[in-house]
Write a structure and sequence with these properties.
By secondary structure, the chain is α+β, with helices and mostly antiparallel strands. 38% of the residues lie in helices and 14% in strands. The structure holds 6-diazenyl-5-OXO-L-norleucine (DON).
Length: 563
C-alpha cells in the first residue's frame, strides 16, 4: 500500500518535472533564436562581437572585433602574427568575396629552406622559432575589412581586444593543455615566456594573462590602420626581433604584404549552393569535389557502412588532387574549373568499388598531429550580412616566438608548404611542386570557411583541425542535407581520410564495432584517435522567418549568442 502511494507521489512529481522541463525548453528554444548571431571559439570573443553589433556595427565590424579578441584570448590558435580567410556576404547587393589574409613566405625564402646539405628535412625548423614564420596577413585583413565593409572605425572595433589585452584574461584548462604541449618551445624565447608562462611553468587556472605590448601594437593598428603594423616602429621591431633570433624577414617583406580579394569556389549539392574557400586554400575545391563525387550515388539506397566506405573513398580521391594540383594561385596555374566540374567527379568515382577499398600509393608512415589550435567564427547580422572566418597561427602557440617589444606571437605557417616533395608536414599532408616554397608565395591551406544555402535557409560554418578541416565540413554538409539542425552539424562524430597516409582516422564513437570490422574487411586500415578533434562554429538563418539559430562544437569552449 505504502509502496503504491509512494509510487503515485513519485509519478505526480515526475509529471511536474516534465511540465517544468517543457516550459524551460520552450523558453530556451525561444531564447536560442534571433535575427543576428555570433558563434565563436571563446565566450569573450562572442560577447565582444555582440556588443559591437549592439553599438551599431555590422557583421564586418563584429568580424574585426571577434578576430582581434580571439587573437588576445586564444594565443595558441590565431593572432595578429598569423593569417586567415574571411568569407563575406554583403546583404545590400549580394556581393560575395573571400578576403585572403594568408601568410606569405619571406622574400628571402627558397625551396630548400628547411633541408640540410644532404637534402633531408631538418626536424622542427619549419615549426619552431622565427624561421618558421610567414609574413602575417591578419592585421592587413582586419584593416581592409574595416575600411571597405565596416561601419565603425578600426579603433572602435579593436577597442575590446585592446582592453582585454591590458586587463588580462583568465587561463582555462584548454590554455593549460596547449601551453603544456608547447612548454619546451615557449621557454626558448624570453618575450613569449614572460607573457604566456609563469616562472617557466604553465600558469594556474584563473591566472590573468596580460599582454601590454600586444595592446600597444593593436593600438598602433587602431590609429594607423594597415601601416600601423607593416610600417614604422612595430614593423621595425618585428624585423629586428626576427633577424636577431635567426629569421630572415626584411622591411620589404612587411611593406609589400597585401591582402587579396578572391572569388569564392562555388558548387552545388542536392539543391544546395556551396560557397567556400578559394586557393590558396584547398578547402573549397576539395569540399566541392567530394560533394560532386557523392552526388553520383543514391546514398539512401546504401547501408550505413557502405555509405561510410563511399565517403572515405571520395575523400581519398579529392585529397589526392589536393596534393597534386593545389598551391598559391598567384604562382601556379590550378585547373580549378576541371577540379570542381561534376563531369570530372564522375570520372573520379569510376574507380570506386563498393566492395573494396582502393589502395592509395604506398608511402612511409607519418606521425600526425592532433592539434586543437586555429580558430573559426561565424556571424550573421540583422541586415543579413554574413562572415565565415577561419584564422590560424598553425601549431599551438605558432612558432612560440614573440618579437621583442611587439607582443606579437608569430605563426609557424611555413610548415604548410611542402618542404620537400612527398615529405609529409605535421598534419601528414604531402604535396609537390604546386606547393613548394618560393619567395613571396602563400602556403597551401585547408581552412574552409563556408556558406551553404537553399530556398529554406542559409548556413555559415567552419572549423579548425588541420588537414581534417575539409572532411569535417563534408560531414557537416551531409548532416545539413539530411535536414539536421546546427547542433548536429557541429557535434556529429567524425572520420577522415586524406589519401596519404592510407588510413581512416576516426573519433572513438564515429564507427561502431561492427562498422569497423566491415571496413577492415573491405581493405581499409583504421586508426582510432585518442582525442576528439575540431571546434566547429555554425549559424543558420531561416529565410522565411528571418530567425537565426546556431551552435558551438561541444568539443570546445566556444559560445553561440543569438539576439
Ligand atoms: O592553414 C592550414 O591548413 C593549417 N595551418 C590549419 C591548422 C589547423 O587547423 C590546426 N588545427 N588543429
Amino acid at each position: 500500500m505504502n509502496h503504491l502511494l509512494f509510487s503515485r507521489v513519485k509519478k505526480q512529481k515526475y509529471w511536474l518535472l516534465i511540465l517544468l522541463g517543457w516550459l524551460f525548453l520552450i523558453t530556451e528554444v525561444q531564447a536560442a533564436a534571433g535575427h543576428a548571431g555570433i558563434a565563436a571559439a571563446h565566450p569573450l570573443a562572442t560577447e565582444a562581437g555582440i556588443a559591437v553589433l549592439n553599438q551599431g556595427g555590422n557583421a564586418f565590424d563584429a568580424a574585426v572585433t571577434v578576430a582581434a579578441v580571439l587573437a588576445v584570448v586564444e594565443p595558441y590558435s590565431s593572432g595578429m602574427g598569423g593569417g586567415g580567410f574571411w568569407m563575406l556576404h554583403r546583404a545590400k547587393d549580394g556581393m560575395e568575396v573571400m578576403l585572403d589574409g594568408r601568410e606569405r613566405a619571406p622574400l628571402g625564402a627558397h625551396r630548400d629552406l628547411y633541408l640540410d646539405k644532404q637534402g633531408e628535412v631538418i626536424p622542427g625548423l619549419s615549426v619552431n622559432g622565427p624561421l618558421s614564420a610567414g609574413i602575417p596577413g591578419q592585421p592587413a585583413a582586419l584593416a581592409h575589412l574595416a575600411k571597405m565593409y565596416g561601419r565603425l572605425t578600426l579603433s572602435q572595433s579593436l577597442a575590446p581586444a585592446i582592453r582585454i589585452a591590458r586587463e588580462g584574461f583568465p587561463v582555462d584548462e584548454h590554455y593549460q593543455r596547449m601551453a603544456r604541449w608547447r612548454l619546451e618551445q615557449l621557454k626558448r624565447w624570453p618575450d613569449g615566456q614572460r607573457v604566456f608562462l609563469v616562472e617557466g611553468e604553465v600558469p594556474a587556472l584563473g591566472y590573468l594573462v596580460k599582454q601590454l605590448d600586444l595592446a600597444d601594437t593593436l593600438a598602433a593598428i587602431a590609429a594607423r590602420g594597415h601601416d600601423g603594423f607593416y610600417q614604422g616602429a612595430v614593423a621595425e621591431r618585428l624585423v629586428q626581433g626576427v633577424r636577431q633570433a635567426g629569421g630572415i624577414w626584411t622591411m620589404e617583406d612587411l611593406d609589400s604584404y597585401q591582402v587579396m580579394e578572391r572569388k569564392p569556389i562555388r558548387g552545388e549539392y542536392r539543391g544546395m549552393k556551396i560557397t567556400s574557400a578559394a586557393p590558396p586554400s584547398s578547402g573549397g575545391i576539395v569540399l566541392v569535389s567530394m560533394l560532386n563525387q557523392l552526388a553520383q550515388f543514391e546514398l539512401e539506397s546504401l547501408s550505413a557502412v557502405q555509405k561510410k566506405h563511399l565517403v572515405i573513398e571520395v575523400m581519398r580521391r579529392a585529397y589526392r588532387d589536393r596534393a597534386e594540383y593545389l598551391g598559391d594561385p598567384d604562382f601556379v596555374s590550378i585547373p580549378v574549373k576541371r577540379l570542381i566540374d561534376p563531369e570530372y567527379a564522375a570520372g573520379l568515382t569510376r574507380s570506386i568499388q563498393l566492395d573494396s577499398a582502393t589502395p592509395s600509393r604506398q608511402q612511409p608512415k607519418t606521425q600526425i598531429s592532433e592539434g586543437q589550435d586555429t580558430t573559426h567564427y561565424s556571424i550573421i547580422d540583422a541586415e543579413g550580412n554574413r562572415v565565415s572566418a577561419t584564422l590560424s597561427i598553425n601549431y599551438p602557440f605558432g612558432s612560440c616566438f614573440v618579437a621583442p617589444g611587439t607582443g606579437v606571437l608569430l605563426n609557424d605557417e611555413m610548415d604548410d608548404f611542402s618542404a620537400r616533395p612527398g615529405t609529409p608536414n605535421v598534419y601528414g599532408l604531402v604535396g609537390g611542386e604546386a606547393n613548394a616554397i618560393k619567395p613571396g608565395k602563400r602556403m597551401l591551406s585547408s581552412m574552409t570557411p563556408t556558406f551553404v544555402e537553399n530556398e529554406a535557409g542559409i548556413a555559415v560554418l567552419g572549423t579548425p583541425g588541420g588537414s581534417r578541416i575539409i572532411s569535417m565540413l563534408l560531414h557537416a554538409v551531409l548532416a545539413l542535407s539530411e535536414g539536421e539542425a546546427p547542433e548536429e552539424w557541429v557535434s556529429r562524430p567524425r572520420y577522415h581520410h586524406q589519401y596519404l597516409p592510407d588510413t581512416v582516422q576516426h573519433e572513438a564513437d564515429a564507427l561502431t564495432q561492427e562498422e569497423q570490422q566491415q571496413l577492415i574487411a573491405l581493405g581499409h586500415s583504421l586508426k582510432r584517435l585518442e582525442n576528439s578533434y575540431g571546434n566547429m562554429q555554425a549559424l543558420k538563418l531561416d529565410i522565411k522567418s528571418g530567425e537565426v539559430t546556431g551552435a558551438s562544437d561541444p568539443r570546445g569552449l566556444g559560445k553561440t549568442v543569438v539576439q
